[in-house]
Design a protein that fits this description.
four-stranded mixed β-sheet, 12% strand, alpha+beta, 60s Ribosomal Protein L30, Chain: A, globular
């Protein structure tokens, strides 16, 4: 349950073409129902955090507040990214499992999609 493992899984998802990175792409993925998990950096602005928290609650998409903008960007081979969506259900589930013990440390989930 190392913090590095979450970013490693995000990097794997990116290499598989299963990540939408950045605010607009993340929002599009959530609204279209393609996002299995949204990750918002812990240092994102209050407005960004609120926007994605509300959107994910409405669309019943799990959300995780994790890492910094720099860490998320590096994981997907970009500059800073405040948000990203993982588009693969298997990888989304793996990331959620890695963060189960961290929920009180900055992680938050919306309602899960059909269990």
């Amino acid at each position: 349950m190392k913090r590095d493992s979450v970013l490693s899984l995000v990097s794997i998802a990116k290499k598989a073409g299963k990540v939408a990175a950045g605010g607009f792409q993340t929002e599009t993925a959530v609204r279209s129902g393609r996002a299995g998990l949204v990750i918002v950096s812990a240092d994102a602005s209050d407005n960004t955090r609120k926007k994605f928290r509300n959107m994910c609650a409405f669309y019943k998409t799990p959300i995780l507040f994790y890492g910094t903008k720099e860490q998320l960007g590096a994981a997907v081979g970009c500059e800073e990214r405040a948000s990203l969506a993982v588009l693969d259900a298997g990888l989304s589930g793996s990331i959620e499992k890695q963060t189960e013990g961290l929920r009180d440390g900055g992680c938050e989930y919306g309602e899960n999609q059909g269990s």
